[in-house]
Design a protein that fits this description.
This protein is 36% helix and 21% strand. The protein has 7 helices and 11 strands.
């Protein structure tokens, strides 16, 4: 594979919120297939391989487990009810810390940020989450600069977004970071997405 290839992963797990997964996947996948100025490999990863059942019953397949997945330049961590178990899963938290040490950009959607906080990765950082969980995020780690009302917060190697549909906005921002504003705008037009508050 070309050394210039970007390898991106979207995490799947039991009771993940469907749009938290599918929104960023669609943005990153459309960009990778039609617009990206360099090769992009987009993968599904999970705590284990195989089918997972999302929050509303949709079955999705994790092709790689986190322990043996190829090195990732970026990983999207969705939210959903399944984050409650992951926030207490020491092997999962350890793997997130290892990805961070390997300089993987970690991007969370919705309550995925609660798992990053449980791993100690948001200490002293600005971050956001679903509006119904802002207080919980602050309780996990009082040093987090919790940003209410923002669709996403870019804090360098960790990017967090608000609830559910905000993952689309965050993913478009990530495309901008990785490939420039024109690529992001072409992707937005390609998926025919209008940002909240626009028509």
């Amino acid at each position: 594979m070309n050394d210039d290839t970007l390898t991106l992963g979207v995490l799947l797990f039991e009771d993940a919120e469907e749009l938290d997964v599918a929104g960023p996947w669609e943005v990153l996948g459309f960009w990778a297939a039609h617009i990206a100025s360099r090769p992009v490999r987009l993968l599904t990863v999970g705590p284990r391989t195989g089918v997972v059942r999302c929050a509303k019953g949709l079955g999705l397949v994790a092709d790689h487990d986190l322990a043996t997945a190829p090195p990732l330049d970026l990983m999207v961590h969705p939210g959903g009810d399944g984050t409650r178990a992951l926030a207490k899963d020491q092997s999962h938290l350890s793997r997130l810390r290892e990805l961070h040490r390997q300089e993987t950009i970690l991007a969370s959607v919705c309550t995925g940020s609660l798992v990053l906080a449980a791993a100690g990765l948001l200490a002293g950082r600005a971050a956001t989450t679903h509006r119904g969980y802002l207080d919980k995020l602050a309780k996990i780690d009082g040093s987090i600069d919790v940003r209410a009302g923002e669709r996403y917060v870019d804090d360098g190697d960790i990017v967090t977004s608000a609830g559910v549909s905000a993952g689309i906005d965050m993913a478009l921002h990530l495309v901008c970071r990785l490939d420039g504003i024109e690529a992001s705008e072409q992707t937005r037009q390609g998926i025919q997405y209008e940002a909240p508050g626009t028509r």
